[in-house]
Design goal:
The chain has about 425 residues and is an all-beta fold. It contains no helices and 31 strands. It has a 4-stranded antiparallel β-sheet, with no helix packed on it. The chain has a 4-stranded antiparallel β-sheet with strand order 2-3-4-5, with no helix packed on it. It starts with about 70 loop residues before the first strand and ends with a strand.
Length: about 425
């Protein structure tokens, strides 16, 4: 095990015969094997006593796992069929994914993200897009981008059709403050409290020229709840955000920090006090992630240059999937890390969090059978080992490592779990 002194960044000599030598790390303070990278300074920094499992130096380094010890922690799951799965949502103990093709088999549901069942749609074989489903007020609600219809379900398995409007296509829907809000092309929007009766409040910002592709709900630092929508610019203009603080009745349009044209469907999520918008421009991918505390003022963040699609937030982590199979994540929305690569070229489009796992869906399957689902558990045990207290060489502690914490446990003693975020 690599160790750090209790008051500085210096490293104990790895050749010193203390502890379990199989865990001795390399002589680099910022070694890439650190779990997770760049968080050495945040590890606990106190002595390891014989009665309380606090690490001496406080940080575990497992060089035999390689530079990215969690790269393989997403694992493939077979979809219920090989439809082109576009989006996924979680609520009421169920994951629900929707496809943009198929005949009466465009919905699949799962209680745990691993075993999926095809269910019949309540709407007439619509095309369901990347941001077209949400959960709130005890029901799933989805809007179609071709049939101008919506459908809802209280259990994720049985669906009922409801008409949003005679005009479409509908691109996205979100729930907040007791209301569902749908957005679409040409500035259109609708809202509903029950997903059955929908109200037309007029065009977003009174502008029929903007096509809105994503929407979410969040609360800014002043405690003001608001819906925030994102458009998809088709020319070299800045993407727009639209903000409604009266439950989708009126909207004000603002410019973001991301320049178009976009080559993909943008995403948006609220978490940890921030609105996060993902997108991609047309030149060399130009992957873009930007943040805003209020949906009005946006800051472009440094992120891997990928084509971002779906984004979600859960367990203190933002996760976005990329069309070419990459997963990027961030604990603060500002610093982003390329975590792993799923099945490449399968067009990963949607991601959701629930049941303490992340679930991603893809449009195509390149590996049989239907490998269009990927699942990741941030709290699963990724590594384990035996640790011997250098101050008590007769002791043995079991060390269990997950992405966010390291646990030390010994029979008859007080265990200790150390957060890697500090």
């Amino acid at each position: 095990m690599q160790r750090y002194s209790s008051n500085s960044q210096s490293i104990d000599d790895p050749s010193t015969p203390v502890g379990d030598q199989s865990f001795v790390g390399v002589n680099e303070f910022d070694a890439p094997e650190n779990i997770p990278p760049g968080q050495v300074q945040n590890a606990v920094n106190v002595n390891f006593s014989s009665q309380d499992a606090i690490t001496r130096g406080g940080f575990a380094c497992l060089p035999e796992l390689g530079a990215d010890p969690f790269a393989d922690s997403w694992y493939p799951i077979a979809a219920a069929n090989n439809n082109q799965w576009q989006c996924v949502a979680y609520g009421g103990g169920v994951f629900v994914a929707l496809a943009n093709n198929g005949t009466n088999d465009q919905v699949m549901s799962s209680p745990d993200g691993t075993i999926w069942t095809v269910t019949a749609t309540g709407a007439t074989n619509g095309i369901w897009g990347q941001n077209c489903i949400c959960y709130g007020n005890g029901k799933f609600v989805a809007v179609s981008r071709t049939t101008n219809n919506a459908m809802y379900s209280v259990d994720g398995y049985n669906w009922t059709e409801s008409g949003v409007s005679s005009v479409g296509p509908w691109r996205a829907v979100a729930f907040g403050n007791g209301r569902f809000v749908a957005v679409s092309n040409l500035g259109k929007t609708r809202y509903s409290t029950d997903a059955i009766t929908w109200t037309n409040p007029g065009q977003i910002g009174g502008d029929a020229s903007l096509n809105w592709f994503a929407v979410t709900y969040g609360t800014d630092s002043s405690g003001i709840g608001k819906f925030v929508a994102i458009n998809r610019p088709d020319t070299s203009v800045y993407a727009k955000s639209a903000v409604s603080t009266d439950n989708g009745l009126t909207w004000i349009v603002y410019s973001t920090a991301s320049l178009g044209p976009y080559i993909n469907v943008p995403g948006i999520i609220f978490g940890n006090g921030l609105f996060i918008h993902t997108g991609a421009g047309s030149l060399s991918f130009n992957g873009r992630i930007q943040t805003s505390p209020d949906g009005i003022t946006w800051t472009l963040r440094s992120a891997p240059d990928k084509i971002y699609s779906g984004i979600t937030f859960g367990n203190g982590l933002f996760v976005s999937v990329c069309v070419s199979g990459e997963i990027v994540s961030s604990s603060d929305g500002i610093t982003w890390t390329l975590d792993t690569v799923l099945e490449p070229d399968s067009q990963w489009l949607g991601v959701a969090f629930g049941e303490n796992i992340f679930v991603a869906v893809a449009s195509y399957a390149l590996v049989s059978p239907y490998s269009q689902i990927a699942v990741y558990s941030p709290n699963s045990i990724q590594a384990s080992g035996i640790y011997t207290d250098p101050n008590d060489l007769g002791s043995q502690w079991i060390m269990l490592v997950s992405r966010f914490s390291i646990g030390f446990f010994s029979f008859g003693r007080n265990g200790r779990t150390v957060s890697l975020d500090g």
